Amino acid sequence: MNHRRQAVRGLAAALATLVALTAAGCSSKAKSGDAKETGAGGVKMGEGVTDTTITLGALTDMTGVYATLGKSVTQAQQLWVKQTNAAGGICDRKLELTVRDHGYDPQKALAAYTELEPKVVGYAQFIGSPFVAAVKQRVDGQDKGLVMPQAWSASLLGSPYIRVLGATYDVETINAVDFLVTEKGLKKGDKLGHVYFEGDYGENALKGSKYAAGQAGLTVVEQKIKPTDNDMSAQVAALKQAGVKAVLVSAGPRQAASLVGVAAATGLRVPVVGNNSAFAPQLLGTQAGPALEKMYWFASPSLPIGADTPVAKKLAADYAAAYPEDGLDNGVVAGWTAATAFGEILKKACEKGDLTREGVSKALLILNAHDPGFGMTHDFTDPKSPSSRQSVIIQPDKKAAGGMRTVREPFVSEAAKTYTF
């Protein structure tokens, strides 16, 4: 616990150092992609590609504040690699996934990125929007390796190589407010509480809640917290005194559980809606479990792992067989979605005879209808937009597979349609 707290508290200062070190690294390295060769099948090759293998990187958190997410994402991607290789690989080459755990520590994240950069064609995951943002200039200007981040901040939009899968936090929050208005009775003149992490994630979500509130005639009551704040008693007291009729939470699973549990215990019986990263099925086994099932929902960029689709059913069964000691959660879906998208991009690059980073980036721009089997179709043709503006509203349910059930199918609110980044 102390290690995690120290890592988060030192994030801002360490990121400043990280950016400086990144710039220094740029000046000492030759431009990516200078050395290219034609290999097996007449395919151009660059970093991470040989006649027999295609190597992808995974920069993850398996020991820090998002360890649950990181483990599920990584194992899902390892499963995809295994199944893809069993089916013959891609472009007559076997896939390899090289994993580095940064523990949500900025220095480790930079070190891992720098280590893997010359060894991989791109990254099937990169957890932590602050870390992705810190290397963005290097990715765009020199390295040009495709990054599929497990982060949904709008600050990552605009890059030809860093592509957000699904609605960004601001759009997701706009859709969440629409759910509260259309299905939970929130109306013009009401106050809407918003508990959010300081920093990129929470503040991007806050931008969405303020926009949606302006459209619906609501007033947002803000409660900014730190990732190390686990007891939401003070925030609940403030929101109760303000007379809020609903609450948004853009934080981690612990904070969401504390907020809902304290609210239920103190009589603030209002609907609470979180962002996609503000829930983990393990919470249903805590004291907050019953309250979460009654008064908590969260917006997600995809249907849950327990969805009634052929892909979801097969993935749930395959994942359970491969990792029988681990439960199902939406990290599995997120990891699978990113991996399958990367796979489709590699196939298109192979068809064009170019598996260099340049070839992969060109292939990305023609992938306009990727369907990983979880209710969303992703369009990667516009770097300035997320791949989708749709959200699904999910409710915790310990009886459902993965502890989640869908209460509103994929939708885009009118406010989200007109929202500009």
Automatic annotation (TrEMBL):
<keyword id="KW-0732">Signal</keyword>
<keyword id="KW-0449">Lipoprotein</keyword>
<dbReference type="Pfam" id="PF13458">
    <property type="entry name" value="Peripla_BP_6"/>
</dbReference>
<feature type="domain" description="Leucine-binding protein">
    <location>
        <begin position="53"/>
        <end position="391"/>
    </location>
</feature>
<feature type="signal peptide">
    <location>
        <begin position="1"/>
        <end position="22"/>
    </location>
</feature>
<protein>
    <submittedName>
        <fullName>Lipoprotein</fullName>
    </submittedName>
</protein>
<dbReference type="InterPro" id="IPR028081">
    <property type="entry name" value="Leu-bd"/>
</dbReference>
<dbReference type="InterPro" id="IPR006311">
    <property type="entry name" value="TAT_signal"/>
</dbReference>
<comment type="similarity">
    <text>Belongs to the leucine-binding protein family.</text>
</comment>
<dbReference type="InterPro" id="IPR028082">
    <property type="entry name" value="Peripla_BP_I"/>
</dbReference>
